[in-house]
Amino acid sequence: MHFGMTDEQRMIVDTTRAFVEAELYPHEAEVERTGHLRMDLIREIQAKAIEAGLYAANMPEEVGGAGLDTLSWLLYERELGRANYALHWTCVARPSNILLAGTEEQRERYLHPCIRGEKWDCLR
User: Fold this and answer.
1) Would 82 be classed as within a structural domain?
2) Is 44 exposed, middle or buried (0-12, 13-18, 19+ CB in 10 A)?
3) Tens digits of per-residue pLDDT, 86-99?
4) What is the pLDDT of residues 3-52, one digit of tens each?
5) Which domain does 67 fall in, by range?
6) Phi, psi at 110, each rounded to 5°
7) Domain count, the chain
8) How deeply is 96 buried, as exposed, middle or buried, from its count of CB atoms within 10 A (0-12, 13-18, 19+)?
9) 90 located within any domain
10) Residue 12's CB: how many other CB atoms inside 10 A?
11) What is the C-alpha to C-alpha distance for residues 77 and 43, in angstroms, rounded to an integer?
12) Half-sphere exposure of residue 63, counting CA atoms within 13 Å on the CB side?
């Protein structure tokens, strides 16, 4: 039995770590100092996370997420967890899995906007 990471898992870890170091770490001091996360900064990092394929990584591919398996998702979360919670949770959102349980109409109204970065969970 092989217990090492797959090539894909290594790529996920490396990509997420590089994103955290380049896009989140530089803003930690400001967030810690002010206790505030500016909306323009949220949107900037969010756009970069979407472009990098890191946004909504916990969601299945068929709804627009990355479709990571459980172990890959946990490796991804471990890397995001290296940064300030406010930065990684708000700017690189992972919509609640409960949103997958709705009807197609509910998914379109609540889930898909979260995956596209238009809403956080079911909040505007």
Assistant:
1) yes
2) middle
3) 998 889 988 888 88
4) 899 999 999 999 999 999 999 999 999 999 999 999 999 999 999 999 99
5) 7-95
6) -110, -50
7) 1
8) middle
9) yes
10) 22
11) 20
12) 29
Look up residue 120 and give its DSSP letter: B
Q: Per residue in 48-88, pLDDT tens?
A: 999 999 999 999 999 999 999 999 999 999 999 999 999 98
Per-residue pLDDT tens for 109-123?
A: 999 999 999 988 765
- As given in the structure block, the two tokens for residue 26 are 């530089």
- Long-range pairs for 52-55 at CB < 8 Å and ≥24 separation? 52/15, 52/19, 53/15, 54/15, 54/16, 54/19, 54/92, 55/92, 55/93, 55/115, 55/117
Q: What is the pTM of this model?
A: 0.88
> Residue 67 belongs to a domain with what CATH number?
1.10.540.10
How distant is the alpha carbon of residue 46 from its chain centre? 8
- The values of phi and psi at residue 120, to 5°, are -110, 120
- Nearest residue to 83 via CA among 26, 9, 10, 12: 26
Residue 124 has pLDDT above 60, yes or no: no
